[in-house]
Amino acid sequence: MNSVFKEHQQLxxxxxxxxxxxxxxxxxxxFQNCDWKIEHLQDLKVDLNATKSxxxxxxxxxxxxxxxxxxxSSFIINEMKRRLKRQPELLTRAWLKFYEILSExxxxxxxxxxxxxxxxxxxPGAFVxxxxxxxxxxDSSVKFVWTANTLNPYHEESDVFDAAIVEDRFIRHQNxxxxxxxxxxxxxxILHKSFLNALRCKVGNxxxxxxxxxGINCVNSPDKQELLMYPLITAEIFIALNCLKVGGxxxxxxxxxxxxxxxxxxxxxxxxxxxxxxxxxxxxxxxNSENPHLVHKxxxxxxxxxxxxxxxxxxxxxxxxxxxxxxFI
Length: 329
Ligand SMILES: C[S@@+](CC[C@H](N)C(=O)[O-])C[C@H]1O[C@@H](n2cnc3c(N)ncnc32)[C@H](O)[C@@H]1O
Hints:
Blueprint: H1 3-8, E1 10-15, H2 20-30, H3 39-53, H4 60-70, H5 76-83, H6 93-104, E2 114-120, H7 126-136, E3 143-148, H8 169-172, H9 195-203, E4 207-212, H10 225-243, E5 244-253, H11 260-272, E6 273-280, E7 293-298, H12 302-307, H13 323-328
Parallel strand pairs: 2-3, 2-4, 4-5
Antiparallel strand pairs: 1-6, 5-7, 6-7
Helix pairs in contact: 2-11, 6-7, 9-10, 10-11
Bound molecules: S-adenosylmethionine.
S-adenosylmethionine binds at residues 94, 121-127, 149-151, 163-165, 188-191, 213-216, 232.
Keywords: Methyltransferase, S-adenosyl-L-methionine, Transferase
Protein name: Cap-specific mRNA (nucleoside-2'-O-)-methyltransferase 2
Organism: Leptotrombidium deliense
């Protein structure tokens, strides 16, 4: 990728100092009642929402055309379709984003003979097909073992969510169907309490990679997107921590990072992963709030965190505002 494009990627790198006893105590402090805010982030949120609200009277279709026209990466899909001899399944913007992430972070796909990956909230499935393409174009001898989850488009409960993806070609595909997992209640809803254990029974806890690309429709309350997404991202993270092997990686999509709840989640990741990167791919539309995909390498300390029995269903977050919390922010 040339330097013009590089300038449009956003990448931040954090490294945990691995002082576990101290960290663990502080992480525990994260999950108390949330009675704090970071004022300058709240100010930024107000500014951002005010700017976004300037679009309220714009026609959405026209605005979409405008952002596509001004987006530096929008030509890439057509270029890929033209250049690739073998067309990948589901060559979408999500496919490009994930291919870009895999290319930027080769550690994500390091594996000996078998590469075990779990994709949470994954329909229509482009992260899976991007990984497959990436692995096959590098070392075809690695066996790609994958499981994907999403809201079950064929379950009646999914109708009440405004989140189920209707594009089901890759779910129904004869070579793919058996890889999709909808939990023991068949809804696919990762917010259901039984999902975590059911998935862990299916895939074990030795996965190399977990991705979490959940999204729900926040068109009617864009100013609340971060808080609306919080339960889903929390569930994704706790499920990932239960399935990853020591040294495994997580790619999780965040949106904005203004609220104490979300900041506390990032703080938790900062404590259980050796390295943490906040990365906005160039191929993610620059104008959307889909912000950092945080990419991590799991530290070998994470089992102790899991053993300390955080329950995400009871999760209430706050950073204490002292010591480590202050440094982190
Ligand atoms: C942005 S799409 C994922 C795109 C996908 N990574 C790809 O590359 O094609 C977001 C997904 O989150 C799923 N989702 C939303 N809420 C969910 C929930 N509670 N449980 C499981 N999946 C959920 C939606 O059904 C949708 O498939």
